[in-house]
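Title: Comparing notes on inverse folding

I've been comparing how different people in this forum approach sequence design from structure. To keep things fair, I'm posting one structure and asking everyone to reply with a full sequence. Here's the target:
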């Protein structure tokens, strides 16, 4: 996962994509950053046609080891748009 001159919000977007869970930015970081993370992972497909990544814990570890950012599970209210029907 690489970003050049990206905002922290771009990293949050990428983390949500790879982890398939909401990620809330509580870092307080501002500015632009270069990020280049590499970890052992593989995209796989389940029986319903959805993809997932085989090593989310590896991503969490590399974010901590290389960026010093810890991903902490928590429960909180977040705004979400739900589309119930498309015409």
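Reply #1:
Here's my take.
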């Amino acid at each position: 996962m690489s970003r050049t001159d990206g905002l922290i919000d771009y990293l949050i977007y990428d983390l949500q994509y790879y982890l398939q869970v909401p990620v809330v930015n509580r870092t307080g970081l501002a500015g632009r950053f270069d990020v280049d993370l590499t970890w052992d992972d593989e995209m796989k497909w389940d029986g319903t046609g959805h993809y997932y990544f085989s090593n989310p814990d590896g991503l969490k570890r590399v974010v901590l080891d290389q960026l010093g950012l810890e991903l902490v599970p928590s429960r909180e209210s977040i705004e979400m748009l739900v589309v119930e029907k498309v015409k």
